[in-house]
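Any chance you could type out some protein's one-letter sequence along with its backbone structure tokens so I can compare the two?
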Amino acid sequence: MNIDRAVLVFAGCVVLAGVALSLFVHPWWIALTAFAGLNMIQAGFTGFCPAAMVFKKAGVAPGNAFK
């Protein structure tokens, strides 16, 4: 798995966790899903992704999107 796929998997997990928490715990947890979506949009425009930096430091193989 490379950084690009790891970031996508992580973002998907955050979105699903936000939806589940908003359904079962409190509706304001939907803000976590909104944060993940906004972060994906800004990463698409700027190429800066904090999760990609963490995965890079963890030794995940580089990908094409986040070098």
